[in-house]
Design goal:
The structure holds two protein chains of two kinds. Chain A is an all-alpha fold. Chain A is built from twelve helices and no strands. Chain B contains 20 helices and nine strands. In chain B, strands 1-3-2-4-5 form a five-stranded parallel β-sheet. In chain B, helix 4 packs antiparallel against helix 6. Chain B is globular and about 75 Å long. The chains are: A mainly alpha, B alpha/beta.
C-alpha cells in the first residue's frame, strides 16, 4: 500500500472523529440548561467543559481500541483504512436479510444473557440489575433532557406534574436503586465472599468501586437536595424513596454545599465515561459484538 | 528488544480479547487450568489477560505516546508454555456468557506464538518433523501404513481407492493405522463397512496425516501442505462419501480443509455413517452384547462438531447393552486430556485429566467405557491401566462388530 493511500485513510478517519466531537460539543453547548439544579452557572460551565473533554477521551479511547483490533490478520491495508472499509461492510452484512436475526440475538443473548441465566441465577440477576439500571437511566436522561430543555413539557417541569413525580423522581430513583443493589451484591461477592472463580485485580476493583461511588454519590446528592429544600426537591420527596431516606439523616444545612456536591458528582460521572475504554467496562460494547458475531457468522463447515 | 508481531492474531480474536468480562466462568470447568492443576495462566481468562498485557506494552496507548516497552523474555516463554497446556477441548466456549469462540482463539494464539518464534514446544518438534518426513506423527515408514489391513485381506473386500473407483472412502487416520494397540479400531470399522455391503476402499500407503496435530499446534503452513496433498488424493479417488473413524481427522477434513480447497465428497464420522446404515436397514445388529456402557464424548466430535446423539443411538440399538450417562456428558463432558498436543508435551498433565474422566465413568457403575476417537481411547486406556480400574476401554465399532 502506498504512503499516499495510507495517509488519506488516516485523514478520513480522524476527520470523522473530529466531526463527531464537534457535533457532540455543539449539541451540549446549544442546550439552554434552564432546569439544571445548580445555582452557580460557573459550576455548570466547569461540568460542560469536563463532559466534552471526557467524551473526547471516551471516543478516542474506543477508536484506539478498535484500531488495535485492526492490526490483526484477515484484512489488508492500514488499520485506519481497514476500519473504514469494515464498518460499511459489516452494516451491509447485517442489513442483508439478517437484521431480524441480529435483533433476536441481541435480545436473547446480549440483553437477556440466556447462557449466564442458565448457569447462575444470582450472577445473572446482579448483571441484569446493573446493566438494566444503567440502560434505563440513560434512556430516561435522554427523555428528560429532550422534554425539559427542548420541548419545555410542563408536567415534566412543574413540581406537582405527573411526569416530574413519576419519571424524574420515581423512575430515576428506581433505576438508580437497581444499579446500587446490583453493585452492592457484586461488591459483597467480590470483596467478602470471594468465590474461587473470581480474581480481583486493580482493574476489577477500580471498575466496581468507581461505579459504586458515582451511584451512591447520586443518592447522597439527592438526599442533600431534599434536606436543603433545593428547587425541584421541595415537594413529593418520598417518590425519590432512597434519597428521601438519606435526607432524613441530614441537616437542612446540607443544602448549602449542594452546588459543590453536584459538581463533584457530575465530574465523577463524566470521568467514568472517559474511563470506560480503558477498563473492563468496555465489554459493554465488545461483548454484544462478540455475541452478534457468534449468532450471525456462518459456523465452520462442521459445527452444527 | 523483541517486537511482538500481532498481525498473526485474527482481527476477531483481538476483538474477543476485549470482550472477555473476566467473569471466571471458564476457569471452574477448564480441565487443564482449573480442574487438574489450578493455574490461572492456563485458564482462558488467564491467557487472555496475560497476552493483552503483553501486546499492550508495545501497541497500547502508553506505548504509542512514550514508545514500546520490552516484554520480559521469561514472561513470553511462560505464556507460550502455558498456552500449550490447553487441550483446546472447547469447554470454555460452551460456558462463556460472552459467546467467545475460544476454540478459534486458542488455535490462532498458537499460530501467533509460532509466527513470533515462541513455539512450537521442543516436545512437539519431533512429531512435526515426523509428519513432514513420514506423513505420520509416529515416526513410522509410509510403507507400514496399511499393514493393519493385512489380516483382513481374505475376509473383507477393501479396494485401493486410488486404483479402483469406490463409493465410500475410509480415511483411517495415523493413530489407528500405526498404533498396534489401536489398530483394532480400523479393523472393526472395515468389518462393519464390509458387513453393510458397501463398495469401499482406502488410500492405502498413500494416505497422509490429516494435519490435525500441525493445526492444533499452530503450524498453519505445514498443515496447509498436508491438506492440499490429501485433497489431491480425494480428487483422484473421487468417492461420494469420506468416512473417518478418528474424531480429529473428522474435524480437520470437515472444518479445516474447506479453507484450503474444495472436498468434493460428503465427510462423515463413522458414528453418523453407521447410524444412517442402521436406520436405512443396510446394517442390522442381530447379536447381543451384555454389559453396562457409558459413552465418553470426544471433544472433536461433540463440542467441536455437535455429534452427541449419533453414538448414543447406536449404543441403544445394541441388544443386551445398557447405556448409562456420566454426570458430565455431551457438551459438558470432561476432556480426555490428550488433545491439543498436551499428551505429547505434558504427559503427566494428560494423565491427571484422563484420570478425572475415569472417576466420572467409574461413578456410573458401568463396566464398559466407550468412545469413538482413537486419541481419547489411547489416553483413557492408559489411565484405566494406571489406576487398575475395572472399566474396559472399548471402541464403539468394536461393540457394533460384536453385535453384527
Amino acid at each position: 500500500m502506498s504512503e499516499g493511500r495510507y495517509l488519506k485513510d488516516r485523514v478520513t478517519l480522524y476527520l470523522i472523529f473530529a466531526a463527531v466531537i464537534v457535533a457532540f460539543a455543539a449539541a451540549v453547548l446549544a442546550l439552554p440548561y434552564e432546569t439544571i439544579y445548580v445555582q452557580d452557572r460557573a459550576y455548570l460551565a466547569v461540568f460542560l467543559v469536563t463532559i466534552i473533554l471526557c467524551v473526547f477521551v471516551f471516543i478516542l479511547g474506543s477508536l484506539y481500541n478498535v484500531l488495535l483490533w485492526m492490526h490483526g490478520k484477515g484484512l489488508t491495508g492500514s488499520p485506519e483504512g481497514r476500519f473504514l472499509r469494515l464498518v460499511p461492510k459489516a452494516l451491509r452484512f447485517v442489513l442483508a436479510g439478517r437484521f431480524a436475526r441480529a435483533v433476536s440475538v441481541f435480545v436473547k443473548d446480549a440483553l437477556h444473557l440466556t447462557r449466564l441465566r442458565d448457569r447462575s441465577l444470582t450472577r445473572w440477576t446482579v448483571h441484569f440489575l446493573i446493566m438494566g439500571g444503567f440502560a434505563i437511566t440513560f434512556i430516561l436522561d435522554l427523555l428528560v433532557t429532550f422534554s425539559l430543555d427542548i420541548l419545555h413539557y410542563q408536567p415534566m417541569i412543574d413540581e406537582e406534574g405527573w411526569a416530574k413525580i413519576w419519571i424524574r423522581d420515581f423512575a430515576f430513583e428506581l433505576a438508580g436503586f437497581m444499579v446500587l443493589l446490583g453493585l452492592a451484591v457484586a461488591a459483597v461477592r467480590r470483596f467478602v465472599q470471594r468465590p474461587k472463580m473470581l480474581r480481583t485485580e486493580l482493574p476489577d476493583a477500580a471498575s466496581i468501586l468507581f461505579l459504586l461511588a458515582v451511584v451512591l454519590g447520586g443518592f447522597v446528592l439527592e438526599g442533600m437536595g431534599i434536606a436543603g429544600r433545593i428547587p425541584g426537591h421541595t415537594v413529593n420527596a418520598e417518590y425519590s424513596f432512597l434519597g428521601y431516606i438519606i435526607s432524613l439523616a441530614m441537616p437542612a444545612s446540607a443544602g448549602d454545599i449542594y452546588d459543590q456536591a453536584w459538581l463533584v458528582h457530575a465530574v465523577m460521572s463524566a470521568l467514568l465515561i472517559a474511563y470506560i475504554p480503558f477498563s473492563k467496562l468496555f465489554h459493554m460494547f465488545t461483548t454484544p459484538i462478540a455475541i452478534e458475531l457468534d449468532g450471525l457468522l456462518p459456523k465452520e463447515a462442521g459445527r452444527r | 528488544m523483541r517486537k511482538l508481531d500481532i498481525s498473526e492474531l485474527d482481527v476477531l480474536a483481538l476483538m474477543r480479547y476485549d470482550a472477555c468480562t473476566r467473569c471466571g466462568e471458564c476457569t471452574a470447568t477448564c480441565p487443564t487450568g482449573g480442574e487438574a492443576q489450578d493455574v490461572e495462566l492456563v485458564t482462558p481468562r488467564g491467557k487472555i489477560l496475560k497476552l493483552k498485557e503483553m501486546y499492550a506494552r508495545q501497541y497500547g496507548l502508553r506505548a504509542r505516546l512514550f514508545g514500546p516497552r520490552e516484554i520480559p523474555e521469561a514472561d513470553l516463554k511462560e505464556l507460550s508454555g502455558r498456552a500449550y497446556e490447553c487441550t483446546i477441548c472447547g469447554q470454555c466456549r460452551t460456558v462463556c456468557p460472552a459467546h467467545l469462540d475460544t476454540i478459534a482463539m486458542w488455535e490462532n494464539m498458537r499460530e501467533f506464538l509460532v509466527a513470533n518464534g515462541l513455539a512450537p514446544l521442543p516436545a512437539h518438534e519431533q512429531i512435526i518433523k515426523s509428519i513432514e518426513n513420514y506423513d505420520n506423527p509416529w515416526m513410522q515408514p509410509r510403507a507400514q501404513r496399511s499393514r493393519w489391513s493385512k489380516r483382513l485381506e481374505k475376509e473383507v473386500r477393501m479396494k485401493d481407492a486410488l486404483k479402483d473407483k469406490c463409493d465410500v472412502l475410509y480415511f483411517v487416520g495415523c493413530t489407528a493405522a500405526y498404533d498396534p494397540n489401536i489398530k483394532e479400531m480400523a479393523i472393526d470399522t472395515a468389518r462393519v463397512l464390509s458387513k453393510a455391503g458397501l463398495d469401499f476402499g482406502t488410500l492405502g500407503n498413500e494416505e497422509g496425516c490429516c494435519g490435525s496435530t500441525l493445526l492444533r499446534t499452530g503450524l498453519l503452513e505445514s498443515a496447509r501442505k498436508m491438506a492440499e496433498k490429501n485433497i489431491a488424493m480425494f480428487e483422484k479417488a473421487a468417492p461420494s462419501v469420506i468416512v473417518t473413524s478418528c474424531a480429529g481427522c473428522y474435524k480437520t477434513i470437515r472444518q479445516d480443509y474447506p479453507k484450503v480447497g474444495k472436498v468434493n465428497a460428503r465427510v462423515v464420522h463413522i458414528t453418523e455413517f453407521v447410524g444412517e446404515l442402521l436406520r436405512t436397514g443396510k446394517l442390522k445388529l442381530d447379536g447381543k452384547v451384555e454389559g453396562v456402557a457409558t459413552f465418553h464424548d470426544p471433544c472433536h466430535l461433540g463440542r467441536h462438531n455437535g455429534l452427541y446423539e449419533q453414538p448414543r443411538e447406536i449404543l441403544r440399538s445394541i441388544r443386551g447393552l445398557k447405556l448409562v450417562e456420566m454426570e458430565r456428558n455431551r457438551e459438558d463432558a470432561r476432556c480426555c486430556g490428550a488433545g491439543g498436543g498436551v499428551k505429547t508435551a505434558f504427559p503427566e498433565l494428560a494423565q491427571k485429566i484422563s484420570s478425572l474422566r475415569i472417576d466420572d465413568a467409574e461413578k456410573t457403575g458401568a463396566d464398559l467405557l466407550v468412545t469413538s476417537c482413537p486419541f481419547c481411547y489411547q489416553s483413557l486406556k492408559s489411565s484405566i491401566e494406571a489406576r487398575q480400574s475395572k472399566l474396559k476401554m472399548t471402541d464403539l465399532m468394536e461393540l457394533v462388530r460384536a453385535a453384527l
